[in-house]
# Entry
Amino acid sequence: MSEIFKAFRDRLPNQQNDSDETSKKVSQFSDSITVSYNLDEDSAVYHLLFDTYMLQIELLRWGIIVRGAIATGKLYHDDKLVFGPALIKAVELEKDAKYPRVILDKKIIDIGKENHAKWHSSEYEEKAIRSLIEQDFDGEFYIDYFGVSPYNFDDGWEDISIYLCTLKKFIENSIQGGLHADVICKFMWMKDKFNDIIYDLERSNYKGLCGWGIPDDVEIDFTPLKPIKLRF
# Structure
């Protein structure tokens, strides 16, 4: 796990300009990873959501899924220690995640909107935040690692194609190899989310994905991407 975390940390993008200072702290203990920002920092909510989004995608490349929560409150976080009410709150909230997802309180969206970057409006900040999250069937807001954007992958559409193929294979193998109903249920949730974006891809005649038009000059064939259909 430590080697995987190091690989992720090396790739973790700095969303700030090089001249900007950031309060971001990242630490790992056992199978837990903590990422934190000062709440009143410009675009802190967006940066935290984006970091978590990239963390989930990176770990999925290694066949690791994540469940967690994002909370607000007092927290002490340095290179060796992390403790405080916010951590306890996140641990308690994580119990409601149930599926392989990172959930957040809806009020965090409003906090992010209020503490927007100086170079754009609060409405723009809210739009950027909502581009990274979805509201699930149970009302919980979660970071949507099924939603993809060519701007969030090093090699754009090529990386997206590889990621989605890897994600599909991981879900299929996990369901087929599941030994317990409660485990299979978690991967069935992933299957439904994956199929939702593939159905949209099919309806667009493979010309659009997650709200992004696929340019005609993209030399990637997305037609092999089909919904997951299982046989037991």
